[in-house]
Recover the amino acids of this structure.
């Protein structure tokens, strides 16, 4: 399937899912909500050679079910035991990695949907379409961490609501999917400091000051990173050494950074309507933007911030609920939709096109390897 038919497929699947879940939530129809979550799960689970890391996981599956002294994927021994377990389950049920991709796809979608239900915004469908377009599609590149991010979002929403025991359990489960999820514990500690400073002691009535601090700090981090990378690239081009300083600007990372920053900017005008737990959600996204700015140059660094900015779709839905006036809400809704469509386009054309067009969708049914 070529690029633009693939883009159309993604849009249709994500939109159908979001609409079905929204109506299922509005009319309290569990079956409709369940059926609404299936299209993206099936789309992600039955893909073949879609996503930059697909072949790596395909080879890792072969290494696990057919052990030998040499590995088709060199990182196979370092993968989490959870991945090994799911690979064996997939091999037992289908003798192929299809079930493995389905399970990870299901975890990613269902865990984030559960996080949405915890915060309970009125427009679940809006938040889901946001999530699908920007984070779920990106999980095709980082499958294990994508699942861990969704479970991490579930942990953070329970923590925000005061369910600390559930939060600890879900952080542990997220770490089983990707060890980097333990960073969430550090983020919680930092957020507690921010909460005491801005919400408890000062009880800030306006978000504008904190937003400006976030913008300036993250911009300085990004500019500093660009400067270091420019020098590193120049030195590398001359001598072929000191490659550790080299940087590669990612359009996708910059897009997500400004998207999250824009969402925080809208919060300035609705801050007084936010409840206390929702303000804590804002603090987590604010911290996420600062951390994520590290990845403007080095994409790998951006991953550590994605555990927080994945909460942005939930924040966007809550912000939409708090906006006043039909025209303002309509503008926000349409703008958000255009942003999501742009994200799908960037992922499919720019990111995918830059590396073997890895977002051109094809299913396992057209592959001779299954």
């Amino acid at each position: 399937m070529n690029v633009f038919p693939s883009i159309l497929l993604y849009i249709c699947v994500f939109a159908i899912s979001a609409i079905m879940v929204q109506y299922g939530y509005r009319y309290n129809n569990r079956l409709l909500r369940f059926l609404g979550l299936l299209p993206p799960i099936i789309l992600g689970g039955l893909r073949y050679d879609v996503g930059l890391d697909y072949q790596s996981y395909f080879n890792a599956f072969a290494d696990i079910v057919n052990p030998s002294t040499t590995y088709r994927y060199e990182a196979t021994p370092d993968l989490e035991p959870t991945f090994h377990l799911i690979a064996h389950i997939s091999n037992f049920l289908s003798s192929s990695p299809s079930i493995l991709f389905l399970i990870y796809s299901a975890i990613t979608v269902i865990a984030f949907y559960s996080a949405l239900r915890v915060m309970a915004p009125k427009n679940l469908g809006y938040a889901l379409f946001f999530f699908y377009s920007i984070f779920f599609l990106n999980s095709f590149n980082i499958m294990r961490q994508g699942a861990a991010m969704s479970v991490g979002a579930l942990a953070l929403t329970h923590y925000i609501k005061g369910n600390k025991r559930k939060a600890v359990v879900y952080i542990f489960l997220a770490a089983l999917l990707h060890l980097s999820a333990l960073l969430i514990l550090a983020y919680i500690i930092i957020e507690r400091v921010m909460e005491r400073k801005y919400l408890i002691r000062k009880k800030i009535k306006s978000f504008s000051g904190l937003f400006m601090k976030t913008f300036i700090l993250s911009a300085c981090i990004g500019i500093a990173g660009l400067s270091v990378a420019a020098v590193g690239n120049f030195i590398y081009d001359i001598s072929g050494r000191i490659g550790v300083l080299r940087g590669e600007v990612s359009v996708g990372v910059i897009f997500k950074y400004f998207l999250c920053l824009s969402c925080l900017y809208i919060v300035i005008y609705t801050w007084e309507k936010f409840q206390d737990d929702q303000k804590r959600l804002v603090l987590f996204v604010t911290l996420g933007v600062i951390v994520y700015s590290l990845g403007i140059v080095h994409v790998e660094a951006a991953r550590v911030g994605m555990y927080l900015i994945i909460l942005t779709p939930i924040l966007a839905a809550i912000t939409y609920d708090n906006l006043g006036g039909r025209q303002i809400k309509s503008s926000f809704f349409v703008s958000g939709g255009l942003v999501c469509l742009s994200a799908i386009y960037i992922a499919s054309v720019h990111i995918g096109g830059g590396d073997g067009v890895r977002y051109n969708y094809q299913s396992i049914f057209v592959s001779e390897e299954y």
User: Anything to note?
Assistant: The radius of gyration is 21 Å. Residues 56 and 73 are 6 Å apart (CA to CA). The chain has a mean pLDDT of 86. The chain has 16 helices and no strands.
